[in-house]
Amino acid sequence: MSNTLSENELMFDQLFRKLKNVIPVAEIRHKAELAVQINRLKKERHAVILGHNYMEPALYHSVPDFRGDSLELSRRAAETDQEIIIFCGVRFMAETAKILNPAKTVLIPSPKAGCSLAESITAEDVRQLKRLYPGVPVITYVNTYADVKAESDVCCTSGNAAAVVRSFRDETVIFLPDQYLASNVARETGKHIIFPVKSAAGLIRPDPGLEYAMIGWQGRCEVHEKFTVEDIENIRAQFPDVVILAHPECSPEVVAASDFSGSTSAMIRYVQQTRAPHYLLLTECSMGDNIAAENPEKEMLRLCSVRCPHMNEITLEDTLQSLLQTRYVVTVPEEIRLRALRAVERMLEIG
Q1: Helix, strand, coil share (%) of the chain residues, nearest 5
Q2: pLDDT digits (tens, 9 = 90+) for 200-229
Q3: What contacts 44, CB < 8 A, 6 or more positions away?
Q4: Cα(125)–Cα(240) distance, rounded to whole angstroms?
Q5: Under a CB-based contact definition with an 8 Å cutoff, are residues 345 and 154 in contact?
Q6: Residue 179 CB coordination number (10 Å)
């Protein structure tokens, strides 16, 4: 009993130091007890826990063996020698881990952790695009499901999207499915982008006389599309010295009005490595809490009007049950996995 109490108190102290200004003390104590159980059980079951930067603070700061963005966690998934991978993120991320680790058991704590962006495109949509633009290579954002990855030549993340596009040199490329990320990458790489129109009759190709170097898709993240230039103007009016960081899934107008744009890991590094009177992150709310907890000397402003409902499905309670019951197992049909693997491995090679 004394050892258990000691473990609980140590975890409580660890979380309290980081989260005392973020969540109530009673919640910290409850979460600490869950975290201790999870950390003990993952050792017994030879499991590794991967935690995305968007995880709620109590989970993010207690149980993951590795934390990061999609690219970093994909690398960790490829390297692990543990028997069980628990992915505290959304389903497309867990699928990517399974693509890289077919012999391992991959679990996701909640079956409801989907993604509005991943659901904006299907494998059949990609096949239609390839029929419309034969021979054009397909770059697919990692925020897609396995069957879409299987139709692709290479995957990318927000952190290496521009590098992946540049790897095709002067070729025209199809870039799916995020409309805003594609537009931001097109601007960064100097490519003109067009967007085919989806109709009841199928995809409609824009004026064939148009010159273009990227072909996009009109998918959006339901979190990042909510940030506006007006939000930025209002914040700057109140805090003229603020440094604003925007995720590249935000609109091109929001990215242009910000001071820095990058992946979640790039934003974390930027805050760590710079000094500013105030910072504002235009991304998922929990990540702002996590950065504030790790950088207590930095002044983080809050513009948190939306929490990703899918990331919010992943809790410490469900992570514990996932370990106890070996639930929910992520599967990818082998034929799809092998085709998707080529695209994911090329993404990791480009880095």
Answers
A1: 45, 15, 40
A2: 777 888 776 677 789 999 999 999 999 999
A3: none
A4: 44
A5: no
A6: 23
Q: Which pairs with CB-CB distance under 8 Å and at least 24 residues apart come from 252-257?
A: 252/180, 252/183, 252/184, 252/187, 253/229, 254/227, 254/228, 254/229, 254/282, 255/180, 255/184, 257/229, 257/232, 257/233
| Closest of 68, 65, 67, 57 to residue 15, by C-alpha | 57
Candidates 77, 43, 38; CA nearest to 60 is 38
Task: Give 106-138 pLDDT, tens digit per residue.
Answer: 999 999 999 999 999 999 999 999 999 999 999
313, 314, 324, 287: which is closest to 302 by C-alpha?
Answer: 287
252: which 2 tokens?
């091109």
**Dist CA 306 CA 222 (whole Å):** 9
**Interior CA angle at 40 toward 35 and 45, to 5°?**
120
Give the domains, in start order, of the chain with CATH numbers.
Answer: 2-114+311-325 (3.40.50.10800), 118-220 (3.40.50.10800), 224-294 (3.40.50.10800)
Q: 3-class DSSP state for residue 146?
A: helix
Helix, strand or coil, per DSSP, at residue 31: helix
Token pair belonging to 243: 């440094």
1 falls in which pLDDT band (50, 70, 90)?
Answer: very low
Structure tokens that stand for 170 in this block: 């002067």
pLDDT digits (tens, 9 = 90+) for 283-335: 988 888 899 888 989 998 876 667 889 999 999 999 999 999 999 999 999 99
